[in-house]
Amino acid sequence: MAISRGHRFPIEFDDAFPQGLVMVGEISPDNEYQSREDRAAGRPARQRVDEMTGKRQWKATVTDPSEPNAKRASFEVTFLADVQPVPTTSEVLPGMRPVELEGLTAEPRVAGNGEFKYQSFVFRATGFKAVNSGGGRAGKAPAEQSAKAA
Description:
Elements: E1 9-10, H1 13-16, E2 21-29, H2 36-40, E3 57-63, H3 70-73, E4 74-80, E5 96-102, E6 105-111, E7 118-125, E8 127-129, H4 136-149
Parallel strand pairs: 4-7
Antiparallel strand pairs: 1-6, 2-3, 2-5, 3-4, 5-8, 6-7
């Protein structure tokens, strides 16, 4: 039995991002393309709706500190929720905050051009979880080491 195109695999956050993620900027609605004529006529932008869940789509740019290739370290995550998700952490630098995603899924896809193609993923989440200091497994290790030393 083949896996159908567009299948979303549920994945644990720590397995996908061992050092956590850093959200850059804010969450914004994922709007459909609006032509110049539509903008000139004053038509409002329509927010995309996920075909599988029926929920509205939101997007945020994140950076994966464990990615060795700088060009692939930053990417967009799509949030599927009726209302705009709110991060549970505070900013560590202006516009940057560590985040941990809830309800994470990964959809494989091919990225790149010509002979420079590579395996990539479309990540979707349903919201945010509270983050330990530093996020991911990297943030959990010092606490575990402290407990063993005591």
